[in-house]
């Protein structure tokens, strides 16, 4: 097995050592001081050497231990140390890998110099207090300032040796600040203001060195920055994650990432919760679609533009260098979110869910209305029965997410006689172009809206209609045969379908059964097949009259018209034109466990149905004969008029 030597003189170096320890990779770790050793959070796999090594000592250690690989994670400004490590590797034939701290893109209004000595020379010609944050080793250069004991405040490491060396140079008392970094922006601001600094001296130490926080703090505190540029050779090598990736391949490390599913809200960064921001800040990899990534601070982080759960899983398992991953999701993770699928594909992994502010909550807040009584639907990439929702609920919230989506919705409402429904459209919510427009469906059906929008529909006339046993007189009928009210009641009771059923109605006639099934299966679909053109027209008229938007009408013969349809959960057969066996075989082929009901009046159809239930793989067979008599006025009397008896066959496929 490969033996590893790690020079861990930086935050990245310590983190890399701890990463190796967590993955049971043995490593010899060198740090310059005992303080650096104490900072390491490691276990049994790390063999730590504290103390500076000469070039000869480095070479001797490599020869004695016969390391295969040396990782140089020393400070980007420690050029002499890096050169000694490279030389020792070259002399011993040890592979050398440089972990180079990523440079920052921020340099703002900085006075750029090539060294600390040049910084001190520049400051000779200035006035005002100076906060020096470049460490103790080169602090001697600032003693060239005539009044350095009064002007210069030195921030250095909090070790006795460092404090003693600074005192010898004349830095003591309130002019010597001993603290361990890196420091956050707020603390830097407070420190600059406390010493009344007009100048700050710093090195371009990258994000992990706190450089960006220093720049922002100096701007807030009104201090100018003297920036010591990074040596050119310090930029050579791999960054932290590239180094991890290389070591993962070298040592066969497998990933088990900690995954955060983060609801980012509407998309404006100001809309994110504090815990969502923290999850993103602590993540090493941010994953999401482009709009989601734009809402997060991706500076200095790896990003993956992806939203498909399987693709995300494949990427994470093939990149074990990322231990903390944040997957960004729009709105709230529990509201028509990709989080549901992600939780499934990462079952067994450590997954934390952070809820965000949903578009539902946001829009209702803008409108000053509650949302606990709203029916929630999504028309974004899916088919849902929004007409039934509007007819049955006073408030319906819908995600749109496509061009002309609002237009199509308003036109559909108008077509179904719901043009007076109030529609509130929220566009670009939380963004600069945010707009909320309210009007009736009829008023808004011709207007243009952004694809990135949601709507709240309010119907004051809504109320759950009775859909069990609709009276025959309510259907448009003409001379087309119709399954009567009492027969429908028994037949649909035998069919026993849930609200999300997928149902075939073969030989649909006027559509009395189709419509009643569609009104009950509000979250499902009904496919009505009818061969007679006159009956098809009545089907369409009844669909519109009752608002059965989840009813699809197919003109033609069964079983041919059924072949391209989704597999049914249930089927009602009111007419088969002599093709009963073929129809049943196709239904059971599509779903071997389908629940089926047949209505038969002609004895030939009864005989055909009996033969089918004997020969086909079905169970739970039940046969009912229903003879209905209805009263009819004859003069001053009521006479019972008998209707044709109907045989009702019900059964279930054995594959259920």
Structure write-up:
Helices cover 33% and strands 24% of the residues. A seven-stranded mixed beta sheet has the order 24-23-22-25-26-30-27, with helices on both faces. The mean pLDDT is 89. It is an alpha/beta fold and 656 residues long. A hairpin with a 2-residue loop joins β28 and β29. The chain has five domains: 95 residues, Rossmann fold (3-Layer(aba) Sandwich), CATH 3.40.50; 120 residues, Rossmann fold; 84 residues, Cobalt-precorrin-4 Transmethylase, domain 1; 90 residues, Tetrapyrrole methylase, C-terminal domain (Methyltransferase, Cobalt-precorrin-4 Transmethylase, Domain 2); 182 residues, Vaccinia Virus protein VP39 (Rossmann fold, 3-Layer(aba) Sandwich), CATH 3.40.50. α3 runs parallel beside α4, α8 packs across α9 and α20 packs parallel to α21.
Which characteristics define this entry?
Rossmann fold; Cobalt-precorrin-4 Transmethylase, domain 1; alpha/beta; single chain; 5 domains; seven-stranded mixed sheet; 656 residues
Topology:
Blueprint: E1 4-7, H1 11-22, E2 27-31, H2 34-39, E3 46-50, H3 55-65, E4 69-72, H4 79-92, E5 95-98, E6 110-113, H5 116-123, E7 129-132, H6 148-151, E8 152-156, H7 160-169, E9 176-178, H8 185-194, E10 197-203, H9 211-221, E11 224-228, H10 240-251, E12 258-263, H11 274-282, E13 285-288, H12 290-294, E14 302-305, H13 309-318, E15 324-329, H14 339-345, E16 350-354, H15 359-367, E17 374-378, H16 386-392, E18 395-399, H17 405-415, E19 422-427, E20 435-440, H18 441-444, E21 453-458, H19 485-495, E22 502-506, H20 512-520, E23 525-530, H21 533-546, E24 551-555, E25 570-573, H22 580-590, E26 595-600, H23 603-615, E27 618-626, E28 629-634, E29 637-642, E30 646-653
Parallel strand pairs: 1-2, 1-4, 2-3, 4-5, 6-11, 7-8, 7-10, 8-9, 10-11, 12-15, 12-16, 13-14, 13-15, 17-18, 22-23, 22-25, 23-24, 25-26
Antiparallel strand pairs: 18-21, 19-20, 19-21, 26-30, 27-30, 28-29
Helix pairs in contact: 3-4, 8-9, 20-21
């Amino acid at each position: 097995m490969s033996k590893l030597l790690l020079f861990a003189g930086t935050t990245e170096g310590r983190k890399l050592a701890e990463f190796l320890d967590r993955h049971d990779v043995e490593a010899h770790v060198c740090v310059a001081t005992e303080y650096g050793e104490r900072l390491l959070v490691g276990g049994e796999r790390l063999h730590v050497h504290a103390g500076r090594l000469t070039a000869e000592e480095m070479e001797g250690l490599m020869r004695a231990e016969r390391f295969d690989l040396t990782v140089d994670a020393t400070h980007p400004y420690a050029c002499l140390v890096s050169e000694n490590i490279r030389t020792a590797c070259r002399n011993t034939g040890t592979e050398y890998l440089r972990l180079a701290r990523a440079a920052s893109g921020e340099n703002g209004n900085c006075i750029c110099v090539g060294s600390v000595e040049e910084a001190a020379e520049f400051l000779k010609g200035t006035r005002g207090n100076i906060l020096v944050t470049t460490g103790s080793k080169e602090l001697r250069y600032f003693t060239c300032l005539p009044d350095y004991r009064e002007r210069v405040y030195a921030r250095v490491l909090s070790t006795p040796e460092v404090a003693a060396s600074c005192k010898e140079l004349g830095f003591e008392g309130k002019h010597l600040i001993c603290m361990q970094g890196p420091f956050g922006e707020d603390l830097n601001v407070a420190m600059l203001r406390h010493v009344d600094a007009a100048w700050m001296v710093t090195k371009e130490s990258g994000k992990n060195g706190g450089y960006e926080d220093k720049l922002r703090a100096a701007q807030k505190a009104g201090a100018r920055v003297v920036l010591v540029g990074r040596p050119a050779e310090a930029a050579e090598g791999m960054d932290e994650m590239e180094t991890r990736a290389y070591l993962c391949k070298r040592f066969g490390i497998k990933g088990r990432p900690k995954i955060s599913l983060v609801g980012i809200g509407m998309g404006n960064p100001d809309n994110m919760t504090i815990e969502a921001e923290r999850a993103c800040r602590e993540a090493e990899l941010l994953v999401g679609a482009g709009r989601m990534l734009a809402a997060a601070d991706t500076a200095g982080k790896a990003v993956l533009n992806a939203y498909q759960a399987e693709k995300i899983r494949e990427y994470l398992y093939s990149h074990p260098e990322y231990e903390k991953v944040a997957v960004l999701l729009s709105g709230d993770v529990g509201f028509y979110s990709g989080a549901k699928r992600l939780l499934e594909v990462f079952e067994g992994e450590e997954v934390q869910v952070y809820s965000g502010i949903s578009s539902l909550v946001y829009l209702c807040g803008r409108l000053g209305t509650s949302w606990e009584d709203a029916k929630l639907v999504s028309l974004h990439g899916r088919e849902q029965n929004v007409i039934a929702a509007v007819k049955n609920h006073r408030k319906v919230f819908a995600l749109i997410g496509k061009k002309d989506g609002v237009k199509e919705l308003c036109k559909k409402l108008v077509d179904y006689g719901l043009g007076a429904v109030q529609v509130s459209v929220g566009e670009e919510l939380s963004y600069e172009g945010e707009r909320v427009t309210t009007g009736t469906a009829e008023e808004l059906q011709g207007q243009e809206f952004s694809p990135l929008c949601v709507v709240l529909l309010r119907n004051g006339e809504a109320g759950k209609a009775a859909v069990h046993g609709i009276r025959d007189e309510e259907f448009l009928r003409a001379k087309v045969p119709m399954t009567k009210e009492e027969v429908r009641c028994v037949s649909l009771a035998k069919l026993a379908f849930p609200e999300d059923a997928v149902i075939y109605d073969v030989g649909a006639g006027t559509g009395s059964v189709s419509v009643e099934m569609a009104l009950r299966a509000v979250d499902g679909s009904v496919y009505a097949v009818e061969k007679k053109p006159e009956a098809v027209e009545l089907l369409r008229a009844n669909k519109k009259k009752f608002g059965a938007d989840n009813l699809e009408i197919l003109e033609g013969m069964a079983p041919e018209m059924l072949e391209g349809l989704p597999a049914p959960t249930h089927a009602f057969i009111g007419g088969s034109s002599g093709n009963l066996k073929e129809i049943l075989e196709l239904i059971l082929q599509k779903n071997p466990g389908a629940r089926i009901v047949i209505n038969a009046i002609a004895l030939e159809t009864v005989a055909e149905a009996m033969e089918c239930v004997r020969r086909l793989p079905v169970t739970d067979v039940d046969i009912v004969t229903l003879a209905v008599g209805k009263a009819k006025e004859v003069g001053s009397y009521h006479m019972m008029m008998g209707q044709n008896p109907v045989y009702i066959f019900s059964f279930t496929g054995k594959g259920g």
